[in-house]
Design goal:
Layout: H1 14-31, E1 36-38, E2 45-47, E3 51-54, E4 63-66, H2 71-99, H3 105-136, E5 143-145, H4 147-168, H5 173-177
Antiparallel strand pairs: 1-2, 1-5, 2-3, 3-4
Length: about 200
């Protein structure tokens, strides 16, 4: 019977796949217009990482204002975008690291360190945005930080989890490479008298 845990060489593609999932969620966060939305009808407020849009109750057209005109808007976008670019680099490095038969464990630990940097940049962007947005942009009606903002946090949480696994993976080097002999446990000495 073969057991495939996290430290199993056959399961080495789980971590790069999780990084790929974080990239997809990051793309949704970067492109989504649902960072801030009106909570209920009439839907008069909508914002993305890049712009804030409002409209009158009966008006079908959105009037949009770029958040790049604000220093905090540029800072939030830049920090989240820098984190995203480093995440894409980490994904490429992880694919390369796990494609090589002789896995370089110090290289894997370096990817984990970079992923902590990614998480730091993304958290900075995700904290700057709501704090400064609510201070400096006039809000109309009841609003909530919505699905695209949630995808940004989901991407960050996956990155943090992967960072821990990449940093801890070298501790299981022998298990991953199959260098440990299996240990068999017997239920009673009668069944295995030669162990005494």
């Amino acid at each position: 019977m073969v057991v495939c845990g996290l430290a199993c060489w056959r399961c080495r593609w789980l971590l790069p796949l999780l990084l790929g999932l974080a990239i997809i969620m990051g793309i949704i966060a970067l492109a989504g217009r649902g960072w801030l939305e009106s909570e209920s009808e009439p839907y008069v407020q909508q914002a993305s990482l890049w712009e804030s849009c409002t409209r009158g109750e009966g008006d079908p057209n959105w009037n949009c204002e770029s958040l790049m005109d604000y220093g905090w808007g540029r800072a939030a976008a830049a920090t989240y975008l820098v984190g995203f670019v480093i995440l894409v680099i980490c994904f490429a490095l992880a694919v390369i690291a796990f494609s090589v038969e002789i896995l370089r464990f110090n290289f894997v630990r370096g990817i984990g360190g970079l992923l902590f940097v990614v998480a730091a940049f993304q958290i900075i962007g995700l904290v700057i945005y709501p704090v400064k947005f609510t201070e400096e942009i006039p809000l109309t009606g009841d609003n909530m930080f919505s699905w695209a903002y949630g995808f940004g946090w989901a991407s960050t949480v996956v990155v943090i989890g992967c960072a821990f696994f990449f940093c801890c993976l070298p501790n299981w080097e022998d298990e991953v490479l199959g260098n440990i002999k299996p240990t068999y446990y017997y239920s009673s000495p009668e069944r295995a008298p030669y162990l005494n």
